[in-house]
Amino acid sequence: MSRTKKLTLSALIAAMCVICLALGAAIPRVSLSLTALAGIFPAVIVLACGFGWAAACSASAAALAILLLPEKTGAVWFLCFFGHYPIWKALIESLQTRVKKPWLGWLLKLLGFAASMLVLYFLFSRLFAAAIPYHFTERAAGPLILGVALLAAFLVYDAAFSILIGWFRIKILPKIR
């Protein structure tokens, strides 16, 4: 694929990410779902163009969302986790395939997820305190319960993401190239 096609595809995917994040800002009830959907789009760039293009696409989408959107919650989630997740998921799974140790891939994914959630929690919990339900912040075990719930959601997201990437590789990627 030529550099012009890679740039065009990356720009279109970044625009689609920003559109999903804008819809999430406009429809608050599905904000996190649309942010997760926006996080799937950079996987297209990882598969079609490579890691560098995907990192640039994700960073530009996050920057545009933070600058342009009135509601920043989805943009912050995208910046801290969903935007770069497809990149490190692909890197971890390629490492996992090379060393033939599936547990290593899961361990690295869980550590990356935990690091992202800790950054979100400690840096932004004061800013987004209204978005966190009361029983997660006022109980002693609240952060632990929240962490377990987020971990379960991450495992489901990762499994669905893997299925979607497999479908994309078989059905769509040959048509793009």
Give an account of the 3D structure.
With 177 residues, this protein is an all-alpha fold. It has one domain.
What labels would you give this structure?
177 residues; mainly alpha
What is the strand content? under 5%
**Largest beta-sheet details:** none
Give the structural class: mainly alpha
Put simply, the count of helices is 9
Helices and strands, in order, run as HHHHHHHHH
Give average pLDDT, whole number: 87
The radius of gyration over CA amounts to 17 Å
Distance between the termini: 7 Å
**What coarse outline follows from CA principal-axis ratios?**
globular
Count of strand segments: 0
Q: Low-confidence parts lasting 5 or more residues at pLDDT below 50?
A: none
Question: Helix proportion of residues, in percent?
Answer: over 70%
Number of domains: 1
Could you give the topology of this structure?
Blueprint lengths: L2 H24 L4 H10 L1 H7 L2 H18 L4 H10 L2 H15 L2 H23 L9 H4 L4 H35 L1
Helix pairs in contact: 1-2, 1-3, 1-4, 1-5, 2-5, 3-4, 3-9, 4-5, 5-7, 6-7
Give a quick summary of the entry.
The protein is mostly helical and 177 residues long. It has one domain. It is built from 9 helices and no strands.
